[in-house]
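Can anyone check this?
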Amino acid sequence: MSCKLEHIKVEALSTCIPDTDNGKALGEQTASDLAFQAASKMLQNYEIDSEDIGALLFLSSTPDYRSPATALVLQNRLQLSQDLIAFDVNSSGNAFNQGLQLGHSILNSSNSKYALVLYGETHSKLKNVENDGCDYGAAMLLSISEEENPIEIEFFTHSKEWEAIKVEGGAYKNAIPQGNDFPYSNLNEPGTLQIDHKKVNEFKIQAFKELGIQHKINTEKAHLVTNFMVDQSFEALSKEIPDWPSKSNASSNYGGVSLQVQVQELIKASTEKKLNILALSYGEGLSASCANFQIHSNIYTSFIKSNLIFDDGDVSHDI
């Protein structure tokens, strides 16, 4: 599926990670704590009137609660308008491009000036998480634009192998009987992150082909940002690895927010007025996407560390 997102641009980006040696959140620090810090700093420094924000979207696979939506918690903490749209989306590794598409849909069907797209993960709260991950929060501010530079996004979903990345704990699947009062509850079993690396790698190669990544890289002067192992995909297809026009070397330790961190690094180092971004990502499902868009190199960005904890209300990482 291909989408052309017209009359929209990225106004600002902000990222927050825990202020810890291993990049993992403190015991009671949640995804919304990190997303709140990223968003509040961005809105304050960019001097955005909260009344101009018509939507708040929160994309995460580790929200604070099963219910209510973490977006509602963040709307209250950020003191945004009471008439805005606020909801969660269950997404992680592929969230950056999905946030672009969802933000565009809302902005182009409303009279809002801005859409605030927030991301957050505390994967370290899950059992058996590998050591090369990092908890994070992030914010992206989208606005209506009259410029003729549409964002083009292509999606590829191979749900036949959805079990390749999964956390079995949930509200109903694999439920543990708790007696007649709570027959389908497993609230005390948060689940374990399970990854079938062979299937995931096979999916990446297939997505690489289906999304036409080789053609895009070879024909467009794009700055590549990705959480793929792109070099390995070229090798698996017996293709020559190209001489990248520009490729960010941001650490993969930023997990699902690695694309945003890479974009921010490119902006910081750039001497160009505009950057052509090719954003390739994948996530649970299995699903992948590739976004091609232009971004001004003078937009506001920030990268901060924080151990702030929201203590007004219990927290839960029981997903």
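Reply from J.R.: I decoded it. The CA atoms of residues 37 and 308 lie 8 Å apart.
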